[in-house]
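For reproducibility, we list the full input for the pyridoxal-5'-phosphate complex.
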Amino acid sequence: MKNIDELYEGLGIDRELISYAEEILCGLKVRFDRIDETAEYNQLRVMKAFSDNRVSEACLLGTTGYGYNDLGRDTLERVYADLFGTEDALVRPQITCGTHALAIALMGNLRPGDELLSPVGKPYDTLEEVIGIRPSRGSLKEYGVSYSQVDLKEDGNFDYDGIRNAINDRTKLVTIQRSKGYQTRPTFSVSQINELIAFVKDIRPDLNVMVDNCYGEFTEREEPKADMLVGSLIKNPGGGLVPSGGYIAGKQECVDNAAARLTSPGLLKEVGASLGQLSGMYQGLFLSPTVTAAAVKGAIFAAALYEKAGFEVYPDSATVRHDIIQAVTFHDPRGVIGFCEGIQSASPVDSFVTPEPWDMPGYDAKVIMAAGTFVSGSSIELSADGPIKEPYTVYFQGGLTWPHAKYGILRSFQRLMENGIAKIPAEK
Ligand SMILES: *Cc1c(COP(=O)(O)O)cnc(C)c1O
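The corresponding predicted structure, in tokenized form, follows.
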């Protein structure tokens, strides 16, 4: 029987790289143990929610047509509400992506004349058009909802004085993005977010706070305590098994307001057939704590491997994680391209394909993406992308299993050794 190094070699990974990786991993043992403990903790929370809500075989079936009295859908929404510590939840395959979930949460809960406040700087790119920061058809701005923003301080902390000044009589909803997304600012921990929410509520107890929870779910032992938590099912909570969907967990009134936008006033959560998707939605949530743990380990391993080889990584390998995204900066386009080629070649689907930079709509530079995923565009699966412009940073995330994340990162490094960008450090 072949040993594991021989298997890696058979897949094109040099022996020197394998031993470099093993040294790196020795230094990460304690961190990885902590991550496994978080996964265990969250697995138990999931089990409690499943059992308290009596998830049954019948729940896995679902409905067609209007979808009245869909036991599985309604139970799944109870499970989400319990897990996220909220009164109710809307968890639907009809929510097309994270942006859509955020859009209906915002549009359902804001009225003409209201103001939306982001106290954490610029929101995720796609929200600019939802809000109307960039003019767009059907934006909140077109409906007379204004927007104000308070940037983070130079050191990445909240500008509490600025936030206090920005809250006015028209402020109705506060939106907090948990993950850095594709910016270079820290991702906020749950306790930081809860502190900010407490500050805002102290000024105006009637304000609603929404957290864009994308990429953050199950990276910690608790979720933020907000009026609405919003995310995508092709990221962490779908566990890689959900083909499409999003969730909004929150206060009853907020969830009903969002449901009025997703379905219709009057119909709210009563309609929306689950279309045979429930089994995957339950199973994906069940797997999510360990899948998220695998992705977090991958991010830390990539940070450590590239950092020691002399590259800029963000966050650095020592940072405690609150999301699954890892950035590596190359200051060279061949770095971004080679990294993505390596990830693509380690994918379960389309491993033989070579990704190329292309002019993606909405971007001002060419973008390269590696995503040989089972679910198209799923970023809880091993994936990487980056714009072909200074400073030539690649963003890496996901990995449904730790061994696969490790393999993908090794292939990226191997590719960068082959094209002369990376070297195994002499002094390890
Ligand atoms: C992924 C993501 C979104 C939503 O993006 P979609 O591609 O529409 O699912 C919003 N905010 C953050 C922070 C995200 O990571």
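The first helix runs from residue 4 to 10. The longest strand covers residues 171-177. Both points were considered when choosing residues for closer inspection.
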